[in-house]
């Protein structure tokens, strides 16, 4: 029998060169698509994370400012003291007021362009707000009625019946004995007002795109050199990526004082009665995302309620650290947080007679 040898090559199969090249092209296209999807996903994630971080930072910062403003004027919410000048341990005298918007640059050096500065003041004592009547004074020794709440180390203001041009001094209690108090300084006064061991005189400003705060009880916040350098030993960081801080007084302008806010503006009160007619502060904090986008994502400068008030205070275009307008400011996303904060200690004064 004849046997036919089977051609072994007839059972072999595989891909041709063309098929391999087509497969490689399809694979490369799939990789390109996947990389593009991944890049877009990462970009959106970075944008979302940056926006979320800026939002959280601004909310926490705004809450802190609200707490300070709500506490402001504690211990000196009296027409006898409001508006008086007070010499602090550091720097120039500051007006004794709950909140001062844009005080003189000798008190708080100007921050970034299109931003406001705030000076928030309050005591931390648990003493009577009406103070102690001074029966007799001999140098640094004051005789008063009752000293049960005074402690060594408390910061005390000796005030006359009307401060006028007198600059008040923040003294320290050196000794307490029955109805006799010894202070670190000698200042003529008919009353002693206890602000507690650690009163607060806080200066808020936006510097180099960050919200910072300085405590006048620890450093000279009016030092322009330290402000320009944003010295972290003096100006403590509160929140990063803050484009602007804006504020307005909520004032009672009715003919007869009723304690109800009628208008918002930046007219700083000049008398004790005008301070008593300022029971609230309206403020806005503008957070900027840290993510720089490839194209413009913000079409117009951020706005807040104060931008359209009778005396508008626009937020304005964000600036560079050197004060020049940021030409690429539209490449960032912004979020405006605003609120009205009651100054409780002023509101609790009620309708003040004669105001």
In total, the number of strands is 17
Low-confidence stretches: none
Regarding quaternary structure, what we see is: single chain
Task: Report the principal-axis shape.
Answer: elongated
Order of strands across the widest beta sheet?
5-6-9-8-7-10
Strand coverage percent:
25-35%
Provide a count of the helices: 4
Largest sheet features: 6 strands, antiparallel, barrel
Report the helical percentage.
Answer: 10-25%
How far is the N terminus from the C terminus? 133 Å
> What's the order of the H and E elements?
HEEEEEEEEEEEEHEEEHEEH
Sheet/helix structural class: alpha+beta
Q: Would you write up a description of this structure?
A:
This protein is an alpha+beta fold and 355 residues long. The strands form three sheets. The protein has a six-stranded antiparallel beta barrel. Strand 7 and strand 8 form a beta hairpin.
């Amino acid at each position: 029998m004849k046997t036919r040898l089977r051609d072994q090559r007839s059972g072999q199969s595989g891909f041709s060169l063309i098929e391999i090249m087509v497969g490689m092209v399809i694979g490369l296209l799939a990789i390109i698509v996947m990389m593009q999807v991944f890049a877009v996903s990462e970009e959106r994630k970075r944008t979302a994370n940056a926006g979320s971080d800026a939002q959280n930072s601004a909310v926490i910062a705004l809450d802190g400012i609200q707490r300070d403003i709500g506490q402001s004027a504690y211990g000196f919410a009296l027409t006898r003291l409001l508006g008086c000048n007070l010499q602090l341990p550091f720097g120039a005298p500051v007006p004794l007021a709950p909140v001062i918007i844009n005080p003189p640059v000798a008190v708080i050096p100007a921050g970034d362009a299109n931003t406001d500065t705030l000076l928030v003041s309050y005591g931390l004592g648990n003493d009577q707000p009406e103070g102690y009547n001074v029966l007799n004074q001999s140098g640094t020794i004051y005789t008063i009625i009752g000293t049960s709440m005074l402690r060594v180390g408390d910061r005390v203001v000796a005030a006359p019946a009307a401060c006028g041009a007198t600059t008040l001094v923040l003294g320290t209690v050196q000794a307490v004995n029955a109805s006799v108090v010894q202070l670190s300084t000698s200042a003529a006064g008919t009353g002693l007002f206890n602000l507690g061991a650690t009163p607060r005189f806080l200066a808020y400003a936006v510097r180099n795109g960050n919200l910072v705060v300085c405590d006048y009880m620890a450093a000279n916040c009016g030092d322009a050199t330290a402000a320009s350098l944003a010295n972290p030993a003096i100006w403590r960081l509160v929140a990063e990526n803050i484009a602007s801080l804006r504020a307005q007084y909520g004032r009672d302008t009715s003919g007869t004082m009723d304690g109800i806010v009628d208008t918002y503006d930046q007219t700083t009160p000049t008398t004790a009665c005008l301070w008593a007619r300022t029971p609230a502060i309206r403020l806005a904090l503008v957070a900027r995302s840290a993510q720089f986008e490839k194209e413009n994502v913000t079409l117009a400068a951020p706005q807040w309620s104060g931008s359209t008030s009778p005396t508008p205070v626009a937020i304005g275009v964000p600036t560079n650290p050197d004060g020049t307008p940021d030409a690429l400011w539209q490449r960032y996303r912004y979020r405006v947080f605003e609120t009205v904060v009651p100054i409780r200690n002023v509101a609790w004064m009620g309708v003040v007679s004669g105001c």
